[in-house]
Amino acid sequence: MHRILYIEDAPAVGGSAICLEELARGLDRSRFEPFVLFAYDLAARASLEPAGIPNATAASIQGRPEPVPPEEREIPLPGFKRQGLYRLLRSLKSYLFVERERAAWLAEWIARERFDLVHANNALTANLAAIVAASRAGVPAVSHQRGYFRPTAFQRFAARGVDRFLCVSRSVADHYAAQGLRRDRIVTVYDGIDVALLRPRKRAERDRALIGWAGRFVPWKGAAMLVDAAATILARRSDADFVIAGAGPELAGLRKRVERSTLLRDRVHLPGFLSDVRHLIADCDVFVNTSIEPEPLGHSALEAMALGVPVVASACGGLTEIVAHETSGLLFEPGDTRSLADALLKLLDDRDMRFRFGIEGRRRAEQLFSLERHVKMIEAVYDAVIGRSNGGRRGSPVTKP
After folding, report:
1. What is the mean pLDDT of the chain?
2. Which residue in 21, 55, 101, 299 is a FRET match for 374, CA 20 to 30 A apart?
3. 261 assigned to some structural domain
């Protein structure tokens, strides 16, 4: 039996925490014993208890008050703060005054609890203390990369002992290889979805096709572009409705724009945040991802495919690995409203194509993106890393920054 320590440092329940819960639930419990250590007292902890997955916050173990999660804010950085030297100095300062103390405590606790492997569930840049702690404790570590972050030279140096970097797509893997991480330690492991839970269902007969979108209303997600495409489409035909769901700073402005337009007012619906967008996705005839910047993977597109809904997506990032163009969906030029409108019009014109894409999307989800496959691939990584450690590569704790 191998004890696996999962480190979850996100300040809110999001994709990383959800994927972690699904992974921990799916592990072969005759071989692996999970324990989840949270930086914040998140609601996700409550869902782990019924599954028999022990967890705690770092503060509760240390006997400290629980920290308040920072507010989610999107503040544009001035140019000099994006430069390499500034970022390097900032990462050094953060480590010396914040992360080093946490790494020292965590290393002692990891050794005392006799964990066999540390799985840092967030980006290298966010989990640096856990990565250093694992190395100090002489325990192998894997680091999960779920986005396109840019580690500084110091962060790469401090993480040189990481055994495997798990990347959620080849796009993310290529990014980190270009950032200087060792290619031989990078492994692509697609996130998994529960294809047994997400099954296609018969959609209601209707005169107008339903085109759906779900996400955060921020510029790079491209919701405004879908409104533009809707205007183009509805100026030419009347057999389409649009539902654009989510929350964020762009929502109020888009609502005003839609309400002022007689063309869009009754055909484009913006319901706001939905607690479970899967019900919306399942009811759609076409689902759209309009990201202007690369998505690491694209969970909503995965869920749509599992539900048998054809996908139209930007040809960037992990979406190009999810959607097989003209087989399970259509890809369009990122940021190009005309390209998006043309793809949607093509599907609106061909009901049989939508049906074929839905069937192929479901098959693709089952073969490449199932939760079972995801768990087995990560278990194989654990076996390889722990096996090497037990083989003598890590016989004792090593000194790290």
Report:
1. 92
2. 55
3. yes
